[in-house]
Specification:
cytoplasm; single chain; Rossmann fold; carbohydrate metabolism; five-stranded parallel sheet; metal-binding
């Protein structure tokens, strides 16, 4: 019984990835273009999210600054989820809703990209970061699920919305990780060209 339940988790995840592949390929490609344009123009990617999405933001930044699968110079990315002094000071002195937007105001520049990750599309602090990014003339790449929530209505035409077509948080997060790996792979492809396997 338990093994069947475990197998079903794998099947459900695989089914969603197959279903999402066609739907998400174009917005992911658009996101790649936005990131490459920013990086080659001297910009950077700021990434934020809560809980598992915070981990995704940090995972993404690590693969940009370190490497994904190929050796290359580090790419400029900052996870806004990692500095406990900033997070606790801003959360305490102001409120939790501005822990990311304060950092976007301080660190963001026109031409930078905000990678805003929220499975529901309704995380108040991520929505506030998007508002701050727009004020800084940054492009927003939003990773959501569940129809996009409030995020869907906050995005501009110049932003990119990658919305996983599912309701369950775990499944959405699994696809978000795949999306981030697709971003890393495609950015490397754009910057370095095809890999010579000879």
């Amino acid at each position: 019984m338990l093994e069947q339940r475990i197998q079903q988790q794998f099947f459900d995840s695989a089914d969603l990835k197959y279903a999402a592949a066609e739907i998400l390929a174009k917005p992911i490609a658009d996101a790649v273009s936005a990131v490459v344009g920013s990086i080659t123009g001297g910009g950077k990617v700021l990434a934020c999210g809560n809980g598992g999405s915070a981990s995704d933001a940090q995972h993404f930044a690590a693969e940009f600054i370190g490497r994904f699968e190929r050796e290359r110079p580090g790419l400029a990315a900052v996870a806004l989820t990692t500095d406990s002094s900033i997070l606790t000071a801003v959360g305490n002195d102001y409120n939790f809703d501005v822990i990311f937007s304060k950092q976007v105001q301080a660190l963001g520049n026109p031409g930078d990209v905000l990678l805003a990750i929220t499975t529901s599309g309704n995380s108040a602090n991520v929505l506030a970061a998007v508002e701050a990014a727009h004020a800084k003339e940054m492009t927003v790449i939003a990773l959501t699920g569940r129809g996009g929530g409030k995020m869907r209505d906050q995005l501009l035409e110049t932003d990119v919305h990658i919305c996983v077509p599912h309701e369950r948080t775990a499944r959405i997060q699994e696809v978000h990780l795949l999306v981030l790996h697709c971003l890393c792979d495609a950015v490397d492809l754009q910057l370095l060209g095809e890999q010579d396997n000879a």
